[in-house]
Structures are given as C-alpha cells and as structure tokens.
From TrEMBL:
Domain named DDE-1: residues: 62-150
GO CC entries: nucleus
Organism: Calocera viscosa (strain TUFC12733)
Gene Ontology MF terms: DNA binding
Alphabetized Pfam families for the sequence: DDE_1 (PF03184)
Name of the protein in its database record: DDE-domain-containing protein
InterPro entries: CenT-Element_Derived (IPR050863), DDE_SF_endonuclease_dom (IPR004875)
PANTHER family cross-referenced by the UniProt entry: PROTEIN PDC2, TRANSPOSON
Amino acid sequence: LHGEAASVNDAAVSKEREELRDITDGYALHDIFNMDETGLYGKMPPNRTLATKRMSGRKEEKHRLSYAFTINADGSENLDPIVIGRWRRPRCFLSKDGKDYGYKYYWNLKSWMKADIFQEYIEDLDRKMRRQNRHILLLLDNFSGHKWDAERITNV
C-alpha cells in the first residue's frame, strides 16, 4: 500500500509485460535464470524482546554479508551462491581465502556487489554454459553494479 494512487501507467506495464513475454518465449524454462542479491546482518541482536519493549544500552552491530542467489525458472537448477564480505580473510577462514574452501567469496569494505565482482561472475557463468552448449537468459534488476563486457559474453 505504498505510493500514490494511479502512480503507475497501466498501459506501460502491459507493454513491458508483452515485451518480456516475447523475449522469454525463445527460451525453455530451465534456460531462464534470475539472479538477485540480499543482505544478512548475522550479528545484529534483536531490537525488541518478546514483550515488544525496546532494548536499551546495546549498540547495533552493522556487520553485513551480501549473498547473490541464482536459480532457473522451473527450479531444477540452483547455481552456487556468491558471498561478499568485508574482510579478505575473516578470522573464521583460518588465514585462507573463501575460494580455498570452495566458496565464491569476494570482499570489499561495504560488502556490496560491484561491477568487477559481477563481471567475474558473469564470465564464469558464460564459461559454464559454453561447456554445456547452452544459451541462457539471465534476468537481473537494474542495479548499477550489474555491468559487464558484452563482447566477451556469448552464451548468457
């Protein structure tokens, strides 16, 4: 119930839906993927008790991990998630990189998706699809970090 009444042009929405259907009709459901990110504040304590009273005297922990999940339209294929943290080698990794443990782990000070991380992700996905001789459609939101070199990508 957010926004103003009639703030969306229904004709424009219908037109965009038709364009999206035209694009997706060229792909099987198992070849249509969606990727999206979410943040996890795993160390943040609850700000209310069961009695719904605010807790005083506690500083909020703002440590964040970002996760990017990719799944296809029929749910038959989940790609490995991307984890983006703040530190290159967190203490729990015992002086190793996340990639040494088999994770797609990246790091930056804000724990956010950036264009260089996304470029590496999209190139890895493209190599995987080339090995499988598949051409896929990857649906994304319009986040500014979702940029890639289109000349190097052939199967996504």
